[in-house]
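Incident log, structure service

09:12 report received: a user says their structure output differs between two submissions of the same chain.
09:20 pulled the input from the user's history:
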Amino acid sequence: MSIKLVVFDIAGTTVKDDHDVSKAFQAALLKSNYEVPLELINPLMGYEKNLAIRQILRLHEHNDAKITTELVTKIHHEFVEQMINHYATAPGIEPLPNVEETFAALRTQGIQVGINTGFSKDIADTIVKRLHWFEKGLINHLVGSDEVELGRPHPFMIQKMMLDGNIERPREVAKVGDTEVDVREGQNAGCKYVIGITTGIFTRQELETYNPTHIIDDIAQVIDIINK
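09:34 re-ran on a clean worker, output below:
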Protein backbone atom coordinates (compact mmCIF):
# COMPACT_ATOMS: atom_id res chain seq x y z
CA MET A 1 0.00 0.00 0.00
CA SER A 2 1.65 3.23 -1.15
CA ILE A 3 1.97 6.35 0.96
CA LYS A 4 -0.42 9.16 0.02
CA LEU A 5 0.33 11.65 2.81
CA VAL A 6 3.44 12.54 4.82
CA VAL A 7 2.87 14.64 7.95
CA PHE A 8 5.77 16.68 9.31
CA ASP A 9 6.28 18.58 12.56
CA ILE A 10 7.57 22.18 12.43
CA ALA A 11 10.21 23.31 14.96
CA GLY A 12 13.22 21.01 14.99
CA THR A 13 11.88 18.85 12.16
CA THR A 14 11.34 21.17 9.21
CA VAL A 15 12.28 24.60 10.60
CA LYS A 16 15.54 25.53 12.29
CA ASP A 17 15.15 25.86 16.06
CA ASP A 18 18.00 26.78 18.40
CA HIS A 19 15.85 26.11 21.48
CA ASP A 20 13.95 29.27 20.49
CA VAL A 21 10.58 27.71 21.31
CA SER A 22 11.75 26.45 24.70
CA LYS A 23 13.29 29.84 25.50
CA ALA A 24 10.05 31.66 24.66
CA PHE A 25 8.14 29.16 26.80
CA GLN A 26 10.62 29.75 29.63
CA ALA A 27 10.24 33.54 29.35
CA ALA A 28 6.45 33.33 29.36
CA LEU A 29 6.54 31.24 32.54
CA LEU A 30 8.99 33.64 34.17
CA LYS A 31 6.58 36.56 33.61
CA SER A 32 4.22 34.71 35.96
CA ASN A 33 7.07 34.08 38.41
CA TYR A 34 7.80 30.47 37.48
CA GLU A 35 11.52 29.94 36.91
CA VAL A 36 11.90 26.70 34.96
CA PRO A 37 15.14 25.28 33.51
CA LEU A 38 15.19 24.42 29.80
CA GLU A 39 15.90 20.75 30.49
CA LEU A 40 12.42 20.44 32.02
CA ILE A 41 10.79 22.34 29.15
CA ASN A 42 12.45 20.69 26.14
CA PRO A 43 10.75 17.26 26.42
CA LEU A 44 7.30 18.90 26.37
CA MET A 45 7.77 20.99 23.24
CA GLY A 46 5.78 18.77 20.89
CA TYR A 47 2.67 18.94 23.08
CA GLU A 48 -0.22 21.36 22.68
CA LYS A 49 1.08 24.32 24.62
CA ASN A 50 -1.77 24.77 27.13
CA LEU A 51 -1.26 21.14 28.12
CA ALA A 52 2.50 21.67 28.35
CA ILE A 53 1.96 24.69 30.60
CA ARG A 54 -0.23 22.67 32.94
CA GLN A 55 2.35 19.87 33.10
CA ILE A 56 5.12 22.33 33.95
CA LEU A 57 3.02 24.08 36.60
CA ARG A 58 2.25 20.74 38.29
CA LEU A 59 5.98 20.38 38.94
CA HIS A 60 5.92 23.65 40.89
CA GLU A 61 2.47 23.73 42.48
CA HIS A 62 1.47 20.97 44.88
CA ASN A 63 -2.05 22.39 45.00
CA ASP A 64 -3.82 21.92 41.65
CA ALA A 65 -6.31 24.60 42.64
CA LYS A 66 -3.60 27.19 41.99
CA ILE A 67 -3.30 26.05 38.37
CA THR A 68 -6.29 27.98 37.14
CA THR A 69 -7.53 28.39 33.60
CA GLU A 70 -6.80 32.10 33.92
CA LEU A 71 -3.16 31.44 34.82
CA VAL A 72 -2.66 28.94 31.99
CA THR A 73 -4.34 31.32 29.52
CA LYS A 74 -2.16 34.23 30.66
CA ILE A 75 1.06 32.25 30.21
CA HIS A 76 -0.06 30.85 26.86
CA HIS A 77 -1.02 34.31 25.59
CA GLU A 78 2.45 35.61 26.47
CA PHE A 79 4.06 32.61 24.74
CA VAL A 80 1.98 33.12 21.58
CA GLU A 81 2.90 36.82 21.42
CA GLN A 82 6.59 36.01 21.75
CA MET A 83 6.47 33.25 19.15
CA ILE A 84 4.55 35.27 16.56
CA ASN A 85 6.98 38.16 16.97
CA HIS A 86 9.94 35.78 16.76
CA TYR A 87 8.81 33.95 13.64
CA ALA A 88 7.66 37.14 11.92
CA THR A 89 10.74 39.28 12.53
CA ALA A 90 13.78 37.35 13.79
CA PRO A 91 16.65 36.68 11.39
CA GLY A 92 17.51 33.09 10.56
CA ILE A 93 13.99 31.68 10.32
CA GLU A 94 14.65 29.09 7.65
CA PRO A 95 13.97 25.49 6.68
CA LEU A 96 16.38 22.84 7.90
CA PRO A 97 18.64 21.27 5.25
CA ASN A 98 16.86 19.36 2.45
CA VAL A 99 13.38 20.17 3.75
CA GLU A 100 12.03 22.08 0.77
CA GLU A 101 13.70 19.66 -1.64
CA THR A 102 12.03 16.75 0.16
CA PHE A 103 8.63 18.45 0.07
CA ALA A 104 9.06 19.12 -3.66
CA ALA A 105 10.08 15.51 -4.34
CA LEU A 106 7.00 14.22 -2.50
CA ARG A 107 4.70 16.58 -4.38
CA THR A 108 6.26 15.47 -7.70
CA GLN A 109 5.30 11.90 -6.78
CA GLY A 110 1.71 13.02 -6.12
CA ILE A 111 2.08 12.59 -2.36
CA GLN A 112 0.35 15.12 -0.13
CA VAL A 113 2.51 17.02 2.36
CA GLY A 114 1.06 18.07 5.70
CA ILE A 115 2.45 20.18 8.52
CA ASN A 116 1.15 19.83 12.05
CA THR A 117 2.37 21.19 15.34
CA GLY A 118 1.94 21.71 19.04
CA PHE A 119 1.63 25.41 18.22
CA SER A 120 -1.72 27.13 17.88
CA LYS A 121 -2.75 27.92 14.31
CA ASP A 122 -1.79 31.59 14.53
CA ILE A 123 1.85 30.73 15.21
CA ALA A 124 1.87 28.01 12.56
CA ASP A 125 0.41 30.42 10.00
CA THR A 126 3.11 32.98 10.79
CA ILE A 127 5.87 30.43 10.12
CA VAL A 128 4.41 29.08 6.89
CA LYS A 129 3.69 32.58 5.57
CA ARG A 130 7.27 33.63 6.35
CA LEU A 131 8.60 30.64 4.38
CA HIS A 132 5.99 30.92 1.57
CA TRP A 133 5.37 27.17 1.56
CA PHE A 134 1.81 27.38 0.21
CA GLU A 135 2.82 29.89 -2.45
CA LYS A 136 5.69 27.63 -3.51
CA GLY A 137 3.31 24.67 -3.79
CA LEU A 138 5.33 22.68 -1.26
CA ILE A 139 2.58 21.77 1.21
CA ASN A 140 -1.08 20.80 1.05
CA HIS A 141 -2.16 20.96 4.69
CA LEU A 142 -1.41 22.96 7.84
CA VAL A 143 -3.08 22.06 11.14
CA GLY A 144 -2.52 23.75 14.50
CA SER A 145 -3.19 22.00 17.80
CA ASP A 146 -6.10 24.33 18.60
CA GLU A 147 -8.01 23.22 15.48
CA VAL A 148 -8.83 19.79 16.89
CA GLU A 149 -10.37 18.45 20.09
CA LEU A 150 -7.03 17.31 21.52
CA GLY A 151 -3.47 17.77 20.29
CA ARG A 152 -0.61 15.30 20.42
CA PRO A 153 -0.23 12.49 21.31
CA HIS A 154 -3.83 12.09 20.16
CA PRO A 155 -4.25 11.36 16.43
CA PHE A 156 -6.81 14.06 15.63
CA MET A 157 -4.54 16.43 13.69
CA ILE A 158 -3.45 13.60 11.39
CA GLN A 159 -7.03 12.42 11.05
CA LYS A 160 -8.14 15.94 10.07
CA MET A 161 -5.58 15.98 7.26
CA MET A 162 -6.68 12.53 6.12
CA LEU A 163 -10.28 13.72 5.98
CA ASP A 164 -9.35 16.91 4.12
CA GLY A 165 -7.17 14.93 1.72
CA ASN A 166 -9.70 12.12 1.09
CA ILE A 167 -7.36 9.50 2.54
CA GLU A 168 -9.20 6.64 4.20
CA ARG A 169 -6.45 4.36 5.51
CA PRO A 170 -3.84 5.38 8.10
CA ARG A 171 -1.48 2.83 6.50
CA GLU A 172 -1.27 5.31 3.61
CA VAL A 173 0.23 7.93 5.95
CA ALA A 174 3.74 8.56 7.30
CA LYS A 175 4.53 10.82 10.27
CA VAL A 176 7.89 12.57 10.77
CA GLY A 177 8.91 14.43 13.93
CA ASP A 178 11.71 15.10 16.40
CA THR A 179 10.02 14.41 19.75
CA GLU A 180 8.51 11.59 21.77
CA VAL A 181 5.02 13.02 21.34
CA ASP A 182 5.46 13.14 17.55
CA VAL A 183 6.24 9.44 17.57
CA ARG A 184 3.30 8.58 19.80
CA GLU A 185 0.96 10.70 17.64
CA GLY A 186 1.95 8.69 14.57
CA GLN A 187 1.57 5.42 16.44
CA ASN A 188 -1.84 6.39 17.80
CA ALA A 189 -2.98 7.36 14.31
CA GLY A 190 -1.89 3.94 12.97
CA CYS A 191 0.56 5.40 10.45
CA LYS A 192 2.53 2.91 8.37
CA TYR A 193 5.77 4.75 9.01
CA VAL A 194 6.51 6.71 12.18
CA ILE A 195 9.85 8.38 11.61
CA GLY A 196 11.88 10.08 14.32
CA ILE A 197 14.45 12.65 13.23
CA THR A 198 17.52 13.79 15.16
CA THR A 199 17.57 17.42 13.96
CA GLY A 200 15.57 18.69 16.94
CA ILE A 201 15.19 18.26 20.68
CA PHE A 202 15.62 14.48 21.06
CA THR A 203 18.77 12.44 20.44
CA ARG A 204 18.77 9.14 18.56
CA GLN A 205 19.03 7.26 21.85
CA GLU A 206 16.08 9.16 23.32
CA LEU A 207 13.94 8.54 20.24
CA GLU A 208 14.77 4.82 20.27
CA THR A 209 12.97 4.54 23.61
CA TYR A 210 9.62 5.19 21.86
CA ASN A 211 10.04 2.59 19.08
CA PRO A 212 9.51 4.58 15.88
CA THR A 213 9.65 2.53 12.71
CA HIS A 214 12.73 4.51 11.62
CA ILE A 215 15.15 7.11 12.99
CA ILE A 216 16.87 9.43 10.52
CA ASP A 217 19.46 12.19 10.64
CA ASP A 218 18.52 13.84 7.32
CA ILE A 219 14.95 14.56 6.23
CA ALA A 220 15.81 13.53 2.67
CA GLN A 221 15.87 9.92 3.92
CA VAL A 222 12.06 10.07 4.11
CA ILE A 223 11.95 9.61 0.32
CA ASP A 224 13.94 6.37 0.48
CA ILE A 225 11.80 5.00 3.30
CA ILE A 226 8.44 5.54 1.63
CA ASN A 227 9.65 4.34 -1.78
CA LYS A 228 10.88 0.95 -0.55
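09:41 both user submissions now match this output. Likely a transient worker issue. Closing.
09:42 reviewer note: Strands lie at 5-8, 112-116, 141-143, 173-177, 193-197, 214-216. The mean pLDDT is 94.
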